[in-house]
Amino acid sequence: KELVETLRNFMLLPKKGIIRFSLTLNRDGIVEVFTINHSEHSQNTLYVNEKLPSLRFPPFGTSFFGQKNHTFMLNLSIENSI
Fold it and tell me: Of these four, 8, 10, 45, 71, which has the most CB atoms within 10 Å of its CB?
């Protein structure tokens, strides 16, 4: 839930469409690696490549106990371009 809220608050795709990606965070909420699996617009790909590495997510706390990192599969989308 907190992961989704962070993405909603700090990322707004520049073009209409969906972008699918995997995101690996360490326990402190720092981006370790991400891979874009699908994007409907190249400007969205550029935006995510630029913005995502600098985002800081909430720490895991008691979630994913025993894991040094965790990979999430996510979709970002926007219905109307800005």
Answer: 45
